[in-house]
Amino acid sequence: MGYDMHLVRPPEGERAAHEAASKAFDSAVSERDALALPPQHPEYRSAQEKVSRAYDAMQATYTSHFHLTTWGMSECRAIMDHFGMLSVAQPPGPPIPAASGASGEQDETRLAWAPAQPRGITLHKLGGDEGWIVTPGEIHAALAAYNANRTSNPAFLAELITEADWWPEWIDYLKRAAAHGGFRTYGPHAT
Fold first, then answer.
1. 32-60 pLDDT, tens per residue?
2. What's the DSSP call for residue 39?
3. Verdict on whether the full-model pTM lies above 0.70
4. In angstroms, rounded to a whole number, what is the distance separating the alpha carbons of residues 91 and 109?
5. What is the per-residue pLDDT for 155?
6. Contact yes or no for 186/3 (Cβ under 8 A)
7. Residues 122, 41: contact at Cβ < 8 Å?
């Protein structure tokens, strides 16, 4: 359980690269499993290392996705708040049921809504399973706030990176998302 973020527009060629890496991973698993050796055997350990490398390579190709556990997203929101990367705004109303004649385009517009001059990522977009779209404008504002505030307490930032070791990857993901139309968020409702 947790939060999954997906780029609005995945990088060109990502799907093909991920499929190729997935096949290499499956092949490494099949080779290892065909050995029928105990896990302590040197040949089995070597095959397992190959599986691990193939898995890491496969994961590295899937750059349009970012996952945080429920606890991780709670930490993420707190850290982003500390750096001034979040804003609070009243979200638009609930989705309009398709039976009422509403189009999917109307719902997309509602999910992508952001203040005209965003001051960061709108908090409600980092909680819930609606598929809120965090826009490039929100991301740029959040990254600008982070860059402006991260040097104010270098000890805190060093401790943060040690304890929340995913934080540098999150910042990289935000930069990537800003260049790919933003990202969608799916997860449990924040409390």
1. 999 989 999 999 999 999 999 999 999 89
2. T
3. yes
4. 12
5. 86
6. yes
7. no
Enumerate the β-bridge partners of residue 55: none
The tokens for 94 are 């609930």
> If DSSP codes are grouped into helix, strand and coil, which group holds residue 113?
coil
Are 185 and 13 within 8 A, CB to CB? Answer: no
Residue 103 class from Cβ within 10 Å (0-12 exposed, 13-18 middle, 19+ buried)? exposed
At 25, the amino acid letter reads F
Residues 6+ apart with CB under 8 A from 60: 21
The CB-side HSE value for 169 (13 A sphere, CA atoms) comes to: 13
Q: How far is CA 144 from CA 76, 141, 157, in A?
A: 17, 5, 16
Whole-number Å distance between alpha carbons of 167 and 75: 10
Strands 65-69 and 86-87: unpaired
- Return the bridge partners of 122, or none: 87
* CA separation for the pair 55, 29 (Å, rounded): 10
Residue 72: closest CA among 173, 147, 149, 1: 1
DSSP annotation of 95: P
Structure tokens at 17: 């690269």
